Amino acid sequence: MRRVTFFMLFLACLFLFPLYSPAQISNSGEVSLSGDVMTAEGNQRVDGASVNLTNSAGNPIQQEITNTAGSFRFWGLRPSTYILKVTADGYQPQEMRVDLSYSSGLGVTFYLRAIPKEHAPTSPGPDVSSHELSLPEPARESLASGRKALYAENDPSSALSFFQKALKKAPGCYEAEYETGVAYLKLQQTSDAMNSFRQALKISDGKYGAAEIAIGTLLIDQGQSIEGEKHLRQGIELSPGSWMGFYEIAKLEVRKGNFPEAETSARQACTLAPNVAGIYQLLSFIHLKQENYPALLQDIDIYLQLDSTSPAAGRAKQVRQQVQQRLAQSTPTPDPVPHLHP
What we know:
Layout: H1 2-15, E1 31-39, E2 50-55, E3 60-65, E4 71-77, E5 81-87, E6 94-99, E7 105-112, H2 130-133, H3 137-152, H4 156-169, H5 174-186, H6 190-203, H7 209-221, H8 225-238, H9 243-256, H10 259-272, H11 277-289, H12 293-306, H13 311-330
Parallel strand pairs: 1-7
Antiparallel strand pairs: 1-4, 2-3, 2-5, 5-6
Helix pairs in contact: 1-11, 1-13, 3-4, 3-5, 4-5, 5-6, 6-7, 7-8, 8-9, 9-10, 10-11, 11-12, 12-13
């Protein structure tokens, strides 16, 4: 059974490669790619979309899940030409070829069109907080203009000026400070992004969970897992409805080898965002490590209901088939019952 488990683990890792952090890859001589996923109809951020990166021949490289800002990023890439494919529940998939032969790619944006089907399910989207609604109208307008520039127009530099205007009109607008951090991330100014997230947390009197989660995620990306985990857990306390916080905690517990704890957090993320395919990828890996193969197969089945066309979905189908075959081969055949003559 040990050889069977190793074989399935190897296959599953081909399906579950998003678990590995970009911070584990050297940035020397390498390029990065970042962007956003928006709705074509209303320029709304698409949270939980699967972004698959392949080489020019279609071979899978990495996969990311868009965050609550609809953003994704790939680090540690070799200069080359890549293909991006985005899938999201309730939307038509899209592909894009990106040439990173000479420099990193910034501001790539996908505009997804809804599937023309009545009552098509949608991915979980961001909520507007009561605090944001209480802001003066000029501040809200500047905040909205900044978000449009950042997410719909791929112009983080212009977005920064709008966010600064919002902060001048409403110094307590920690949402604008948080969005400033997102804009700095798109500009690959990680240090400035961290400062903005910390400032957002400060002016919110330590009550803005999204900022805590952003800080924690950045710290973990930088290899500061202990401090990052503290911020993630504090962010979850402040924003218990944040599936991303539970998802990041689950990934961290997987890296630490704490699979029961990882499963608990992943299931909580699944409860909050049942249509995010990446959560089921994570659960698949956890159940594989626990040798809970019936649960593993169920995870893959649910994943394929949410994502049936991406390169990762093709690998998931292979994993499912191989797991079933190996389990059948490892199941002993019962001896025939001898016929007893009277």
